[in-house]
Amino acid sequence: MAALFSGAVYGASTIAAGVYLPSTIINQFKFQDWHMLQTSLDAVASSAIIYKVAERYGYVKLKPRSSSPIGLFGQYDGNVIGGFLLGAGMALSGSCPGTLFAQVGAGLRTGFYTLGGAILGGLAYTGYVAQAAKTQREKAGAEPETVTLDENLGLSNDTTVALFESVCLSIIGASVAYTTGSDWSLYSAGGGLFIGLSQLFSILVRRSMIGISGSYEEVGNHFWWLTRDAPWPTSRQNTLFAVGMTSGAWVLAKVLPSFVKGHVVETEPLLAGVGGFLMIVGSRLAGGCPSGHGVSGLSLMSTSSLVTMSTAFAAGSLVAPLFH
């Protein structure tokens, strides 16, 4: 039940933050609307502080995200390839592995089309891609490594977190001062804090951080268990989180309809479906999505998360202008 309630809080916070709209995601990649970046950085910055306090008082201690090597061209090749597919899929669909559940809860058609592609992506990853990546990784003798930003910089964790907070605030400030597509306001600031508070709720009730893309892998594992006589899947926590996220978004949209925009620009069904497929294959190759790597992984100062999300943003910026 903890995963279900935690997901509900995250789903509601995604609606409240206004980052569920396809146009917000697409226009960020086109550098026409900076709300997504501002809200995301605000969420990551607040989440990092929340985790640091929880860790300092001994409530929780979590392991940073490890790299996802495939054995092709380096320790972070899976993060780079997966991040590229993730960003391309987000740009095509105007969604992300977590946001689409909020879109479904709010009744957006884009969310349903993207969800269809995402489920197929989960089936493809668990049925074929995961084994191919594992075979290549074992052939190359590549092993995951857990390296943090403070280890790379040669600084203490406290200093690195302080530096990270400064960078987040500086980027937000620069986007406000030097761009024309910024709507920075109390709404933008509060949007990121809503997501940060959902992270706090997850840490308090589950002693873990938010993440969503594993739900598609769980669905795929159950599908192949039914059709291939594969081993019985033991994990369903991510799926419960996803159900909770959809429910939380639906409840907020019904109780406080002012949070849901009256006119929503939907993504074309084909682009939404293809985007959903790509971003799930990519997020699982990279070991996480904008929730797991972005909000949570960066809060833990994970190098793999920075590589994944930087690549995803770059890929989305390349793809969005070509299709929208």
UniProtKB/TrEMBL annotation:
Output the superkingdom of the source species.
Eukaryota
Q: Does the keyword rRNA processing apply?
A: no
Q: Which keywords does UniProt give here?
A: Cell inner membrane, Cell membrane, Membrane, Transmembrane, Transmembrane helix, Transport
Pfam families associated with the record: Sulf_transp (PF04143)
Q: How is it placed in the membrane, per its record?
A: Multi-pass membrane protein
Q: Where in the cell is it found?
A: Cell inner membrane
Please tell me one Gene Ontology term that the record gives under cellular component. Answer: plasma membrane
Task: Establish whether keyword Zinc is in the entry.
Answer: no
Q: Which residues cross the membrane?
A: 72-92, 112-130, 184-205
- The protein, known as: Sulphur transport domain-containing protein
What is the scientific name of the source organism?
Answer: Fusarium pseudoanthophilum
